[in-house]
Write a structure and sequence with these properties.
Helices cover 4% and strands 49% of the residues. By secondary structure, the protein is mainly β. A hairpin with a 5-residue loop joins strand 20 and strand 21.
Length: 376
């Protein structure tokens, strides 16, 4: 019996989709949160071509007030944003992967003033928020449809540190789930501490760890955190001293032992110190941190055994005041959000040396302060 080849005719829509597939495979969605002072209206969305670094605007994803920090659900179907206001909020959105638009789901109180950071647990069941102005943290249940329930846990930080202008009280600046998700590490700029909480995944309750915190040098101002790829080390960017502190993680992420603190600035730098963001490259070999004082991006090599850092270079951020940056999932591009110059600048990452080169075309974005990626 002779074989007859099977021939299938594609409709116009199916053919277009098939032809577009290779191009889409090289792209990822980029969401940019901003302060909503004119002309900014909320969260904007772009499509990043990971081959060329070109960012194509898809418009305003959603209008929402002061979405200055964003977080993506592990299933990539939902996006969350703080509403950085005196009466703080956290907003939930559903992602339309074809258009990049965000559908509002709901908004809940952050239970504090000036929320500035969010984190979703690895299972996608809980969202945590840090309130900078009031110095508190809270936990919120994530419902099956991506919306948020009212807070199930709340902790008010207390105390002060050595700088009378900025550390007269607590300022929770980030909430970070330690690898494994058993502990939440809250960096408090006002206390010079990383507060350690044991997470109850069943009811969202947060209880002090043993020990309950790790201290940093007085006046450090811990801000954000990142973790090594092998989950053995934690890195803290200190805003006020413009340093990065390396900790060894122990006890399932509930203990921090300081190993090293390195400067982000040159030895003769005498200007304002104001570090902001920190991230580890997906290959685990490099760490990056942004410094708003001189608008630079610092690159460090990571010792694979010790976890310690060695300086590679400092690169101008391509604008003024790099509040935030993010590394795309492929590890090819670093996008720097320059708040005061109103632009996002793509840098190509050399995978062997860790060095950055401004190879993509910058895009204008009013008051950009946070970048996240959603890979289709």
């Amino acid at each position: 019996m002779s074989s007859i080849p099977c021939i299938r005719l594609l409709g116009a829509a199916a053919l277009a989709a098939q032809l577009a597939a290779p191009a889409l495979a090289q792209t990822t969605l980029v969401y940019v949160g901003a302060y909503t002072r004119p002309p900014s209206k909320g969260i904007s969305v772009y499509r990043l071509d990971t081959a060329s670094g070109q960012m194509t605007s898809l418009g305003v994803a959603v209008e929402t007030s002061n979405p200055t920090f964003l977080a993506v659900h592990p299933n990539r179907k939902f996006l969350y944003a703080v509403n950085e206001e005196a009466d703080g909020g956290v907003s939930a959105f559903a992602i339309d992967p074809s258009t990049g638009r965000l559908k509002p789901l709901n908004r809940v109180s952050s239970r504090g003033a000036g929320p500035c950071h969010l984190a979703v647990d690895p299972a996608g069941h809980w969202l945590y928020a840090a309130n900078y102005n009031s110095g508190s943290i809270a936990a919120f249940p994530v419902r099956a449809d991506g919306s948020l329930g009212e807070s199930a846990a709340f902790v008010q930080h207390t105390g002060s540190s050595v700088n009378p202008q900025r550390q007269r009280g607590p300022h929770a600046h980030s909430v970070n789930l330690a690898p494994g998700g058993r502990f939440l590490l809250a960096a408090d700029l006002g206390l010079d501490q990383i507060l350690i909480y044991r997470v109850d995944a069943g009811n969202g309750l947060l209880t002090p760890g043993d020990p309950p915190f790790a201290s940093l040098a007085g006046g450090s101002g811990p801000r954000h955190m990142a973790f090594s790829r092998d989950e053995r080390f934690a890195y803290v960017v200190n805003e006020m001293l413009a340093t990065v502190t390396v900790f060894r993680l122990g006890g399932g992420g509930g203990r921090l032992a300081e190993l090293q603190t390195v400067p982000m600035t040159a030895a003769d730098y005498a200007g304002l110190k104001s570090a902001a963001e920190i991230a580890v490259h997906p290959n685990g070999r490099f760490l990056y941190a942004s410094h708003r004082g001189d608008s630079t991006l610092a690159a460090f090599g990571i010792d694979p055994e010790k976890g310690t850092l060695s300086a590679i270079e400092r690169t101008p951020s391509g604008g003024k005041t790099p509040r935030n940056f993010a590394i795309d999932p492929s590890g090819t591009w670093l996008l720097a959000a320059n708040q005061d110059s109103g632009n996002v600048v793509p840098f190509r990452i050399d995978r062997e040396s860790g060095r950055l080169s401004a190879s993509g075309k910058p895009v204008e974005v009013a008051s950009p302060v946070c970048i996240v990626f959603v890979k289709p």
